Amino acid sequence: MADDETFCYRDGELYCEGAAAERIAEQYGTPCYVYSTALLRERFKRIRQAFAQWDTLVCFSVKSCANVSILKLLAQAGSGFDAVSGGELYRALVAGADPEKIVFAGVGKTAGEIEYALQEGILMFNVESRAELEAINEVADRLGVRARVAIRVNPDIDPRTHEKTTTGKGGTKFGIGIDEAEKLAGEAAGWSGVELRGIHIHLGSPIYSTEPYERALAKVVPLIERLRAAGCRIDRLNIGGGFCISYTGEATPPPQEYAAAVESYLEKSACAVIIIEPGRYIAGNAGMLLTRVIYRKETQFGKRFIICDAAMNDLVRPTLYGAFHRLWPARSEEGMPQVVLAEQEGFDGIPTELVDVVGPVCENGDFLARARALPRLEAGDLLAVFDAGAYGFSMSSNYNARPRAAEVLVDGPEHRLIRHRETYGDLVGPERQFM
Ligand SMILES: Cc1ncc(COP(=O)(O)O)c(C=O)c1O
């Protein structure tokens, strides 16, 4: 199934695979995240194939979309996982992940999380500081095991993405500078609890060109060569995630382009195993958020608001990152325009009005879209927020005491709940006994 056939309009109705959005919304209520099994599988397969010339382990980035049914589906397809907390590790294990395919990054792993990961036998830690390497060494010594580690290098490369998701630039909290990494590797060679086996980078997300990867690897591969010459057994190179997707319908570089761009560096690194950590590429386009219009509001100040039952607590990306998501009514005779640009004000033949699409949360920053051209929407209309599968539900919260949305997984014409809508009882569950 082609990408644009996964979420598409047939006879004026939006479908995810073979399931009509309206029917899903009626059955499970709104707001509701809807994911496509076919597209999740297809994207996993595509990125794995792009890197197939190497022995590549794809570690899906749990933070992007952490529902255990989705992790299970990917684990069954052969995916490993990139976790950044004990909680993410737990989720991956509950989903049936092979611990030997789990990597663990993050700048603040606690001793408890390190112990948990060691006891579960994960593949390796991506270490982000000297203090953390010492902590891993200590915990491993206490448990009588040897932890496999990769140093997460901060190559000081600007990935030219949002400042808040820039992680490979000097001055950010992530990773260890090349010179420090080389020094630390030399010292740690004598430590009994850790075994340095790899180098890891993760530059940021999303990255719309291959060039930052090339520039980073041009620094990292010589480091690997120097470390090897100094006696370290570096046999794993992890190039992280960040592979972009289209949020507007426009063409973006496919995974083969990233693979081709880094090919010479990966060859030169002579690492037996290459690891990639895609999150957004696999899950981003594979999920949408369905929301119903509660009210229209037109003001004397000349503004037109479409007030929906989904809010910033359900999808924080627009207000947090200024992120752009396509929105379109689930019933539309004309279907949705192929490409929707942020600055676009109208579409050929489709009458539209400029609106702000907002939620019920008490913040001026609570919006899903601002100044967006949309067909006229009325209370009760169903609206789809596209490309919300990554960093959508996983970043949602209970702010304003709003129960979190339901999640639904579609497979062909079938659909099933994979997370029930939270209840008011769920909101106070962890507190009630202490009243
Ligand atoms: C260490 C690490 N790896 C992988 C990813 C996944 O990035 P993306 O979803 O853009 O592929 C992230 C995201 O922040 C990350 O922090």
Describe, in plain words, how this protein is organized in 3D.
The chain folds into two domains: 3-30 and 286-431, Lyase, Ornithine Decarboxylase, Chain A, domain 1; 37-281, TIM Barrel. The protein contains 13 helices and 21 strands. It has helices at 3-6, 21-28, 37-50, 68-76, 86-94, 111-120, 130-143, 178-188, 211-229, 255-269, 280-283, 317-321, 424-432; strands at residues 7-10, 13-16, 19-20, 32-36, 56-61, 80-83, 102-104, 124-127, 147-154, 176-177, 194-200, 236-238, 273-276, 287-298, 304-308, 327-329, 353-358, 367-374, 382-385, 406-411, 414-419. Strands 4, 14, 15, 16, 17, 18, 19, 20 and 21 form a nine-stranded mixed β-sheet that branches. The protein has an eight-stranded parallel barrel with strand order 5-6-7-8-9-11-12-13, surrounded by five helices. It has a three-stranded antiparallel β-sheet with strand order 1-2-3. The longest helix has 19 residues, at 211-229. It is globular, with a radius of gyration of 23 Å. The structure holds pyridoxal-5'-phosphate.
